[in-house]
Amino acid sequence: MKRLWYYFVKYYMRIGFTFYYKKVIKTNIENVPRSKPILFVSNHQNALIDPLLIGAYTPREMYYLTRAQVFNNHFIAKILYSVNMLPIYRIRDGYTELNKNAAIFEKCFEIIHDEKAILIFPEGNHNLQRRVRSLSKGFTRIVYGSLDKYPNNELVIIPVGMNYSDPTGYPSEVNLVYGKPISVKNYWNDLPENDAIQVLSDEVSEALKKLTTHIENSKDHDKIVSHFKKDDFLDPIQVNKKLKTLDLDQPLPKTAKKKNSFLYSLIKINSFIPFMIWNKIKPNIEEREFISTFKYTVAITAYPIFYLLQSILIGYLTNYKIGIIYFIISAMLVYIHTKTSK
Fold first, then answer.
1. How wide is the angle at C-alpha 175 spanned by C-alphas 134 and 241, nearest 5°?
2. Do 39 and 156 form a contact (C-beta atoms < 8 A)?
3. Cα atoms found within 13 Å of the Cα of residue 242, Cβ hemisphere only
4. Cα–Cα distance, 290 to 299 (Å, whole number)
5. Can you give the pTM of this predicted structure?
């Protein structure tokens, strides 16, 4: 039953992303083994949207290591556990809380032994800047702990680069770039553990820097970003090449101002309550990294519920066929707007 629930949520998320993103690109997804145990390691730019996208489009059931703070509410915690999310505790949660990680890591060892997949964001936090930050050693603890307990595991690490044209915008585009599998046994067999941990961490970091845009100069980050068009960031290889020779004094690319179309105005009128909900939530978002998370949450809850209720009302006042037609038209208007907006 839990597995059925997991896949229902997975594909509901995917349907939601179809209406939310203009395009979701999956580059080199063939690098993902269908049976081996996997530790997916990704850069973390866009709060909960990152794990939701990887989970929705990667052809493996997976477990997610998530910051423990979001498990504070008992009801929310039950929902998170039901979709394979596991809390991971950080120093900022308190030193006494760190002891709870031992049980979580043991759970991870068993997941890997069962040849399943785990997703972790080793940067430890999210940041909208387009760069790969220093990696914590937590993922290497999972790697070597699992091999200590089960030496015959064929565990591989798959680095994943998250590349958004506009992380907080709608509609936006995203490219999930899957790196080549890194066999951890090569490090386990050939190097002392401390050396192996450092070498493995460095290799994963370098892989992520190739799979996503990496702007080393955080001081001039925003100025550097302004020299690219948003769509450029969907191709991290070309962007990283250009970064090596970028002249910050060269003219900035022209960007057309986004205008609200008639279709958008029509959707806004037809969806006035979801728009009101979003306008109420938006000013209270403290971290910009959560803008897309909340926006997407409203999109997959308030909009379909509102359309459904309106359809029932229209069907009651006229007949059920007209109510069904209204629901389909409402959904198609959003879909067309998402796919055709510039």
1. 65
2. yes
3. 15
4. 14
5. 0.92
CATH numbers and ranges of domains, the chain:
2-244 (3.40.1130.10), 262-340 (no CATH)
pLDDT at 303: 96
Taking CA atoms, 294 is separated from 87, 280, 342, in Å, by 20, 11, 22
Closest CA to 152 of 188, 119, 123: 188
What are the CA-CA distances from residue 329 to residues 14, 264, 266 (Å)? 20, 14, 12
Taking the alpha carbons of 286, 291, 295, 298 in that order, is the dihedral positive or negative? negative
Tokens of 240: 């990283």
The string of pLDDT tens digits covering residues 66-118 is: 887 778 888 888 888 889 999 888 766 666 777 788 889 999 999 999 999 99
125-183, pLDDT tens digit by residue? Answer: 888 999 999 998 888 889 989 988 998 889 999 999 999 999 999 999 999 999 999 99
Residue found by looking up tokens 């996997």 in the block: 38
Decide: 132 and 205 in contact? Cβ < 8 Å. yes
Rounded Cα distance between 126 and 131, Å, is: 11
